[in-house]
Amino acid sequence: MPTITTFVPTPEELAESAREHARSVFPAGSATHTQSTGATTPLHAAPPQAQALPAQRPPRPPLDDCLISSAELAQLHIPPRPALLDRWLCEGDLGFIFAPRGVGKTWMAMALPGAISRGSALGLWAAGDATTGPAPSASAEPPASTAPDSGGDAEAPDSGGSTPLPVLYVDGEMSLKLTQYRNNGLHLDTSHVTYLHHERMFEVQTHCVNIGEAEDRERLTDVIVRRGYRVLILDNLSSLASGVDENKGTDYEPLSHWLLDLRRRKVTVIVVHHAGRNGMMRGHSKREDACSWILELRDARQESDSGAKFVSHFAKPSRNTGDPLPDLLWHFTTDPATGITDIRCELAVENDYEQFIQHVLEGVTSQKDMAELMNRHKGTVSKWARKALEDGRISGNSHKLLPPRSKDNKPVKSHYHPDEDSGDEDEEDDSF
């Protein structure tokens, strides 16, 4: 059996190590004086013995003060979390909005903060609870009141006594001109929504934010806490998290811990993401574990429709409701003359079979993927596929489901192109 000998440095080796450390900390040209050993030490420096020891992190306090018995828990008063929109979106939620490219993710993501900030309804979703001031935080500072044209955040309470909820919208992809166009069309200039836009960041700092890096996550947390933002919208995960492999759960863990930290600070986070070729949210399923809800947008636009038209469906029902919410049909249209965006919303009358057809139009080709996506038995999906093929609602065969063919025997154009699903921004036709 080999013998393991512990390495013990000699005094000469320790002295040389100290000199190397001094040269790295105090480069040539700095104010120093030479001791008899030949090592250089800066003027007014601490004794060499104190410098040789690396700084140690102080131990964390014991956990005793954090313990709570079941009897104490039973008597503990825990105030209910305020609802920010209807019953499904509450303070401190972490939620995802996903859809194939071009369906309207950014339209929905930009419509939400206006309603949340003003405390107003959106479509058939009722208004949330009364808006309040900054989230409680030990290190939070009250948001400073700023001039209207300075990109300020929370302001003093209005005459009604309520304080609008400040929202930070981080855009990592869309053009600044198009963001401005939609902001004006949705009247967000009258709300308390502030943008951190990638083009603006590049103009000012010559680089963009990347939540895949710890430093940028810390910078975002800093601005959220200091300015008192209550809601954070990240649009979108693919463009904002560079260098993070979507298919590796371990890559997502640092982001997950950061999002949970924001949740503990009572900051609501909404993440916009893309659907994969199978129609489900792209990437590792680990990101869904801590979600309060997942909102899927399904394309409902016909060739004759203008703007964005889609059905909102809770792929993961909200933990705040206890029961599933109905699917809604949304239609966003913008008047080219005035630039004002009109939002129409109604209940979506769509049975499971029609949803199956819609998923085929969006690019889901496998019956296995379809069964997993819709949470239905494979036999049920097979019956739908057989009926849809017989009725001409779809084409292809039982092994590969395809959109229906037109009169000239060409596949009907779908607004979702799987081969082009590269994480680019939504591509609705907006003229401005």
Automatic annotation (TrEMBL):
<feature type="domain" description="AAA+ ATPase">
    <location>
        <begin position="91"/>
        <end position="344"/>
    </location>
</feature>
<feature type="compositionally biased region" description="Low complexity">
    <location>
        <begin position="130"/>
        <end position="148"/>
    </location>
</feature>
<feature type="region of interest" description="Disordered">
    <location>
        <begin position="392"/>
        <end position="432"/>
    </location>
</feature>
<protein>
    <submittedName>
        <fullName>AAA family ATPase</fullName>
    </submittedName>
</protein>
<feature type="region of interest" description="Disordered">
    <location>
        <begin position="130"/>
        <end position="164"/>
    </location>
</feature>
<dbReference type="InterPro" id="IPR003593">
    <property type="entry name" value="AAA+_ATPase"/>
</dbReference>
<feature type="compositionally biased region" description="Polar residues">
    <location>
        <begin position="31"/>
        <end position="40"/>
    </location>
</feature>
<feature type="region of interest" description="Disordered">
    <location>
        <begin position="1"/>
        <end position="60"/>
    </location>
</feature>
<dbReference type="Pfam" id="PF13481">
    <property type="entry name" value="AAA_25"/>
</dbReference>
<dbReference type="InterPro" id="IPR027417">
    <property type="entry name" value="P-loop_NTPase"/>
</dbReference>
<feature type="compositionally biased region" description="Acidic residues">
    <location>
        <begin position="421"/>
        <end position="432"/>
    </location>
</feature>
<feature type="compositionally biased region" description="Basic and acidic residues">
    <location>
        <begin position="405"/>
        <end position="420"/>
    </location>
</feature>
<feature type="compositionally biased region" description="Low complexity">
    <location>
        <begin position="42"/>
        <end position="55"/>
    </location>
</feature>
